[in-house]
Specification:
The protein has seven helices and three strands. The chain has 147 residues and is mainly α. The protein is 41% helix and 7% strand.
């Protein structure tokens, strides 16, 4: 049964999308920021490149909105046992192409969404000053570590 999942934490959803779209390559199409902006803004390839060169140091609104609104269903996530976040993950570089990895913009802030992934057993997440997030995961039976 395909049930649309309602994620509460964007960082968690992005980690799931990265796993499905860029690691396993089962969520299609695989989004590329240059092609996406070219199409969304009706630009030529070179114009899209210029836009990314100029705007790519901050969140590109169209990209984050696309991922926020991307439908993920329960059947897609049934066998995800581990989530591993890394600053070089493709999904983050689609949203902020020149992201330094030094801001906490993509940090997972809540463990509420783990109930959406029944097979999840382990997470490795970006370090956050609020260390209670590890305890939240562990209290729900998930092994949790900082990257």
């Amino acid at each position: 049964m395909k049930e649309k999942l309602d994620f509460k934490d964007l960082g968690f959803k992005l980690a799931v999308i990265n796993e499905l779209m860029y690691v396993r390559e089962v969520l299609k199409p695989k989004i590329d920021v240059y092609k996406f902006i070219e199409k969304q803004r009706n630009l030529s390839e070179s114009e899209a490149f210029e836009v990314i060169e100029k705007e790519g140091y901050e969140i590109i609104p169209e990209m984050v909105n696309y991922f926020k609104n991307l439908e993920i269903t329960s059947d897609m996530v049934q066998d995800i046992e581990e989530l591993y976040t890394d600053g070089g993950d493709d999904i983050y570089l689609q949203i902020i192409p020149f992201w330094s990895g030094e801001s906490n913009v993509f940090n997972i802030k809540s463990a509420k969404d783990i109930d959406l992934l029944p097979a999840l057993r382990k997470v490795t997440i970006f370090y956050d000053e609020d260390t209670s997030i590890l305890t939240e995961f562990e209290n729900k039976g998930i092994t949790a570590n900082w990257l």
